Amino acid sequence: MTPPPDRPDDDDSDDAALFRAAIGEVRRLPDAPLPPTSPKPRPRARMAERDEAEARDEFRHALEENLLEAGDALSYRRDELPPRVFARLKRGEISAQEELDLHGSPVREAEALLRAFLNDAREHGVGCVRVIHGKGRGGGNDFVDSRGLPVLKNLVDRMLRQRADTLAFHSAPPAQGGTGAVLVLLAPRKRR
C-alpha cells in the first residue's frame, strides 16, 4: 500500500527543508547579557542594634520604677539653668507663649503631637509652653494604666526628660492647671 499523498509528516519535513533552502546558512546570535543583579544589602550592625534595644528596655524598666501618680508634681531642671529661673517657673511667673492640650488623645497620637508641638515651638523661638496632660484620675477622657497611674502624665514626663532642648519643667500652679498641666522652659535655638 502506498501512503496517502497528504501525510502531515511529509509536509512538515518538506516545509522545513524549503525554509532552510530559502534562508541559507544560519549564524547563531551571541547570548544576551544577563540582567544586572540588584545591589547587595548594606551590612547591618546587628550587635549595635541589639545593644540599642537592650538599652531601651533597661531605660523603660528604670522609668517604670519611678512612675508618677495623679497628684504628683512634674519637676525637672538641667544643671545649667539657674535655680532662681527654675523657682520663677515653679511659681508660674514665666508665661507660656503656646499651649497644647492632650486630653483624650491616645498615647501614640499624644506622643506624636507633643514631639511636633515642641519642635515647632523651638523652631519659632518660643521659650515657654504649657502642656495639658490631665491628672489621670480615670474620669472622662483621662487615661490610666492597669495600676491606676496616669499614662499621659508619665508619657509627658518621660519625653520631656529625654529632650536635649528642655531646660526645665514643672507642674503648673493651681490657677494654670495644677498637676494636670506642665510648664516647659525650652532652650533657645542655636543659630547657624
TrEMBL record:
Record-linked Gene3D superfamilies: 3.30.1370.110
PROSITE patterns: SMR
Origin superkingdom: Bacteria
SUPFAM superfamilies: SMR domain-like
Stretches for region Disordered: 24-56
Name of this chain's protein: Smr domain protein
Protein source organism: Lysobacter antibioticus
Domain Smr: 100-187
Taxonomic lineage: Bacteria, Pseudomonadati, Pseudomonadota, Gammaproteobacteria, Lysobacterales
GO molecular function: DNA endonuclease activity
